[in-house]
Structure formats: structure tokens, C-alpha cells
Write a structure and sequence with these properties.
The chain folds into three domains: 147 residues, no CATH class; 286 residues, FAD/NAD(P)-binding domain (3-Layer(bba) Sandwich); 131 residues, no CATH class. It is built from 19 helices and 21 strands. The strands form five sheets. Strands 1, 2, 3, 4, 5, 6, 20 and 21 form an eight-stranded mixed β-sheet that branches. Strands 8, 9, 10, 11, 12, 13 and 14 form a seven-stranded antiparallel β-sheet that branches. Strand 12 and strand 13 form a beta hairpin. Helix 11 packs across helix 13, helix 14 crosses helix 19 and helix 16 crosses helix 17. 49% of the residues are buried.
């Protein structure tokens, strides 16, 4: 989580003011009273059906209704809000523009201001969603559905979605028809059932077994104001850029939680992300669960049970080790897992990691993002990392349109983003902005009698839609954001190649250290990973290689490359052999010579890139 510097002093003032107020005698903490949804009479036909009551789905439904459509919002849960209200993710990963303003605005801004900040009470969030929906006369809501599936027919190689079939709590199935459908389910279930193509987890970068960890958010009680002040003081004044605290949220204590020894090898405890509720209970986002199949209910339930068994040990540990949490007791756990990734739909355009980190704009911009590319750990032996930190990039409307499926849009984390791009674009503010765009796009498509693809292909109609949304409170104007300085580095083609495999990380400062020396061990590890992830056409995928401990030179690299080609000769002969084969890029070789033949990170990336191009590879999913 990030907090902007200009928020520090106002937040500190409000914190102290709140502390004084809450120290008054007789103060009682209590949460807000629930706001029920207005009961809807469900019709057999609508202009637009939105499947999924996630924040993205609420934004899409509101947008469609405000643009004159009759809308049905349908979900399987008892309340709206999805990940926020059922997964208890009660702190929003905000996206700020270059001037520190909140990106996108629109319905997201309405929601944010009603919550009064980016950390919130769960019931308060439910109430805000319900009030916003209740105000729309032409928006019906159907909750507690047992199952939602698409009504469709086939035309040649294309699926046409004509509505949804809903199984209600009694088991009765009802068909509800519509001109358009927006899939706002977490896992793009409607799109997948309609035949949309997709990858799962990190399949698109050659790591099919990898998915970011799932989390079970849990609740602590027994914390008073003085405890919270202790948490605040420790994280605000520890001189660590990556930790911090505000009036309702805190993040950090990595040095404490790293010492926890889990009872299960599938469990890990990361730094604490803490969100305070109105009743002064705390929601903790820190418990990571590995090897969860997000598309299988049985796997999710077993993961929840595994986490529940671990929780007493975790709570006992943090109550002893973390300042401010002494005496904290377990008060509950979220009804649903926080699943970070599952499907990544193949759309008319797939947003890539280089789109994100080069701050690219698109003519069909539907939303803007700027959150760091946060890739969570995929297993107990791996660590999460920040691949880079964009200034501002656009999400194209084409990324919401699944290939070979008509009348359907997909919003949320399962839209057409590469696995690495989704590390930033999966955030709720981006999804809510895309949802608002999708709802308005459905209206314009009906007005123009155009398909979503035809709409996306027209620059003039995209401009018309963006102008309409700007008039409705969004900010979708062309962005002239300069690409980062690293794009001008001579080794940037190699960096782009390695970054798209998740093998080159710049962190929050976008510092890839291209001119620093690359170690022998790192070069061999990166090359091995690239060979495996790309399914490279080499003769020996796992050659025996031994580290010598010296600086990595062009001759060491030559030997390693030849070993992958199953050729065993000394270093200098290997260099000459590759020279005879015409392998070396003359400009790159000249730069390496100028560095006394020692390989820098930039040169190493370029060499691996050239070797992969030289040998060839067959992974069909890797983006450019």
C-alpha cells in the first residue's frame, strides 16, 4: 500500500484530533447499521445484465442505468461489494496521477468520498454500495443466486451471449434475456462458459504452475486506542519507506513477521496490512496460502480450512511480537478468500507489462492505472517483488472485449491483461473505472446499433464515448506521459525481453541497474529460467555448469551458451565457435570489449535475448 506525501500532515492532524475525541469519557465504539437493498421485481428482459456484484460490477450497473439502460445486477452473494465486503479487503490500492490526483474519478470518486478514505469499515462499504444502487430507478438487483451461466448461441466460430440463466435458492432456473452482458465475476466465469479463450495464472510467461498466493483476511479484537497509537508510532517513525500508518490503516512489521515459522509448508506470513474498523477491530491482510486452485470450490474450501488451523498460531505469534497487538485475540475470518489471480481472458488486445511500464496511452482508453506492478509470492520458496512503478498508463477498451464472443464485456482482474500487467491493473480503482466505461459503452453500442468490436474500431466513436464519460465525472483525456528514461538505454531491448518473462525487476524506483556487473550465478539462473519459460529449442536444457567465482566475462558466457547446445569446449574456443556461426551482435560485443569483457546486467539481458532468438522458442503466449 502507498500513501502520498502530501497526505501525511493532514492525516497526522486528523489522527490526533480523533484521538482526543475518542479519549472522552463514555466513548463507545460501534459500527454502522446495515442498509438493505430495495427489493426488485425481476423481469424477463433487460437492455443490460451485469453478472457479479464486485465493485467493478456495481460501477458497470450504475453506469448502464445512468446512461438510460434497463439493467439487472445479479450475484451469488447476500450483499454487494464482493472482494471488499466478502473477502474483507478493506483498504483500496489507490491509483494517483502525476499530479497526485486520483485517477479516473467518476463513480470511483463517489464511492471513495462516501467511504471517507481509502481504508474503511466493511459494513460501511456495504451500505455505500447499497445506497448507490437503491437510488437508480431502472436498476434491478438479484442476490443469492446459486448459479449464473450465459444464454448463448453459436454463429460459425463465434459465441453470441443473449442473457443469463439464473438458478435461485430454491433450485429453479430462470432465463433472463438482454442485449448485452457485462461479466464482472472475479474469475470471468460467464466469459469462460461462453467459450472465451484464456490463460491461468502465470501460464502466459511459461510458469503454468505459478499463481499469486491467496489470502484469508482475519479479524483481531482487544485493541484499544493506545494500542493503535503504538502501531502508528512504530510504523510512522521507523525510517522505512515501505512501511507507514494513517488514521485507519497501517502497513509494515516485515522484520517481525519474517520470523514466523508456519505449521504448514503451504502457509506464509508476510508483512501486516492492517485496516481498522469502526468498532476498533482490525482486519489483517497477511496470511498467504499457496497451491490454491481458484477455479475449484473444493480447493478454495480446503485452503480456507488450512488457514483457519494456522490462525491461532499466527495470532499468538503477532500478539507477542508486534508492537500494539499485545493481548489481541482472533475475532473472525473473512467469508471468502482473497484470490489475486485466476483467469486472464484473451481479448481483442492484451495489455502487456511493457504497456504498463512504458506509460502507454491508447486511443480507446477506458481507464487509467498507476499502481506499482505488485507480484505476490507464488510459493513458500519464492518472494514477492515489485516489477516496476508506472507513472500512468491506459487500459484500452479492446482489453474488455473477449475474442470470438459477441455481446459480452469483461471487467475486473480477469480482463485481457497479461499476468504481469495484471500485477498493477488488477486493482479495484482500475476495475471500477473500466466498469463505468463498459456500462456507458453498452448504451452507446445500442444507440449506434454497433457491436462492441465495431465500437472499439472507431476512433471517433471512442472519442464520443470518452467525452460522454468526462461529462459524467470521469477523466479520460489523452495523456502525454513521457516513457521512463531507461527506454533510451542501449540495453533496453534486452531488458524488455527479460521483463516480460518476470526476470528483470526495477522495484519502486524503476532502477534496473543495467550498468552494474552481473554475477555468474545470476546469469546462469536467468538463462535457465528463460530456456524453461520459453520452451527454447536447445539441445541440452539442464547442462552441468559450475560457478568459478570470478567476474562474468564474454568467454564464460560463450562456454555456457555452447553447453546449452550440447557442445563441450573451453571458453575461448566456444567464443570463436559462436563467432564463426555469426552469433555476436557487433555493437553489443564492442560495448562488452570496452568494459574489459565483463558482463553488466544490461549486456547479460541482451545476450540472453540474442541467444533465445538464435535458438528459437515455442511458447505461444509470451507477449511482445
Amino acid at each position: 500500500m502507498r500513501i502520498k506525501k502530501w497526505l501525511v500532515f493532514p492525516a497526522a492532524f486528523l489522527f490526533l484530533l480523533g484521538a482526543v475525541i475518542m479519549l472522552r469519557p463514555g466513548w463507545v465504539f460501534s459500527g454502522p447499521e446495515p442498509v438493505p437493498l430495495v427489493k426488485s421485481n425481476i423481469n424477463s428482459r433487460y437492455d443490460l445484465i451485469v453478472a457479479g456484484g464486485e465493485p467493478e460490477g456495481v460501477a458497470a450497473a450504475l453506469s448502464g442505468a445512468r446512461n438510460g439502460l434497463s439493467v439487472l445486477l445479479v450475484d451469488t452473494r447476500p450483499v454487494l461489494g464482493g472482494l471488499m465486503t466478502r473477502g474483507w479487503l478493506n483498504s483500496i490500492d489507490m491509483n494517483y496521477g502525476p499530479g497526485d490526483e486520483i485517477l479516473n474519478r467518476g463513480i470511483l470518486n463517489e464511492f471513495y468520498h462516501q467511504l471517507r478514505g481509502d481504508s474503511f469499515d466493511i459494513q460501511r462499504a456495504v451500505n455505500v454500495f447499497h445506497r448507490m444502487v437503491n437510488k437508480e430507478d431502472n436498476l434491478d438487483v438479484l442476490m443469492r443466486a446459486k448459479k449464473i451461466s450465459p444464454i448463448m448461441n453459436k454463429k460459425e466460430k463465434t459465441s453470441i451471449v443473449n442473457g443469463v440463466k439464473v438458478k435461485d435458492s430454491s433450485g429453479k432456473i430462470k432465463g433472463i434475456y438482454s442485449t448485452a452482458v457485462i461479466d464482472a465475476t472475479q474469475d470471468a466465469d460467464i466469459a469462460a462458459a461462453a467459450g472465451a479463450q484464456y490463460t491461468v495464472g502465470h501460464q502466459d510467461i511459461g510458469r503454468p504452475q505459478d499463481k499469486m498466493a491467496a489470502t484469508l483476511v482475519f479479524k483481531l479484537e482487544g485493541i484499544n486506542l493506545l494500542d493503535w497509537l503504538k502501531i502508528y508510532y512504530n510504523l510512522r517513525f521507523d525510517n522505512d519507506f515501505n512501511t507507514g500508518a494513517a488514521w485507519r490503516s497501517a502497513w509494515g512489521f516485515y522484520e517481525k513477521t519474517s520470523k514466523y515459522e508456519p505449521k504448514s509448508e503451504r502457509i506464509s506470513l508476510r508483512g501486516l496490512n492492517i485496516g481498522r474498523q469502526d468498532d476498533f477491530t482490525l482486519l489483517i491482510n497477511a496470511l498467504q496460502i499457496f497451491d490454491v486452485d481458484p477455479l475449484e470450490e473444493d480447493s478454495r474450501e480446503k485452503a480456507k480450512a488450512l488457514a483457519a488451523r494456522e490462525l491461532p498460531h499466527i495470532v499468538d505469534f503477532i500478539s507477542r511480537e508486534v508492537p500494539g497487538l499485545k493481548g489481541a485475540k482472533l475475532a473472525g475470518k473473512a467469508p471468502e478468500l482473497y484470490i489475486r489471480e485466476s483467469r486472464h481472458i484473451a481479448g481483442e488486445y492484451r495489455l502487456t507489462i511493457n504497456d504498463v511500464l512504458e506509460n502507454r496511452d491508447f486511443y480507446d482508453r477506458a481507464a487509467f492505472g498507476s499502481y506499482p506492478v505488485d507480484i505476490q509470492a507464488a510459493g513458500p520458496s519464492s518472494k514477492g517483488y515489485v516489477l516496476g512503478d508506472p507513472t500512468q498508463y491506459a487500459v484500452p477498451f479492446r482489453s474488455l472485449i473477449p475474442e470470438k464472443v459477441n455481446n459480452l464485456l469483461v471487467v475486473g482482474r480477469s480482463a485481457s491483461y497479461s499476468a504481469l500487467a495484471a500485477g498493477s491493473a488488477r486493482t479495484i480503482p482500475v476495475g471500477m473505472a473500466a466498469g463505468q466505461f463498459a456500462g456507458a459503452a453498452a448504451a452507446l453500442a445500442m444507440e449506434k446499433d454497433k457491436s462492441f468490436r465495431e465500437l472499439a474500431e472507431s476512433c471517433s466513436q471512442m472519442q464520443q464515448l470518452q467525452e460522454r464519460l468526462n461529462n459524467q465525472g470521469m477523466e479520460l483525456k489523452p495523456a502525454d506521459i513521457e516513457p521512463p528514461k531507461v527506454t533510451g538505454h542501449w540495453a533496453y531491448p534486452g531488458l524488455k525481453f527479460m521483463r516480460r518473462l518476470g526476470l528483470a525487476s526495477g522495484g519502486y524506483n524503476n532502477d534496473y541497474k543495467l550498468d552494474s556487473e552481473m554475477s555468474e550465478q545470476r546469469f546462469m539462473k536467468l538463462l535457465s529460467n528463460a530456456v524453461k519459460q520459453l520452451n527454447a529449442r536447445v539441445d541440452n536444457t539442464s547442462p552441468d555448469l559450475y560457478r568459478e567465482g570470478n567476474a562474468l566475462t564474454i568467454y564464460d558466457v560463450s562456454y555456457v551458451f555452447c553447453r546449452y547446445s550440447d557442445i563441450d569446449m573451453d571458453k575461448h574456443k566456444a567464443f570463436n565457435y559462436l563467432s564463426e556461426k555469426g552469433f555476436w551482435n557487433k555493437e553489443l560485443l564492442a560495448r562488452i570489449r570496452q568494459n574489459d569483457n565483463v558482463i553488466t546486467n544490461g549486456a547479460g539481458y541482451m545476450l540472453i535475448h540474442d541467444f533465445m532468438q538464435y535458438t528459437g522458442y515455442t511458447n505461444p503466449h509470451v507477449d511482445d
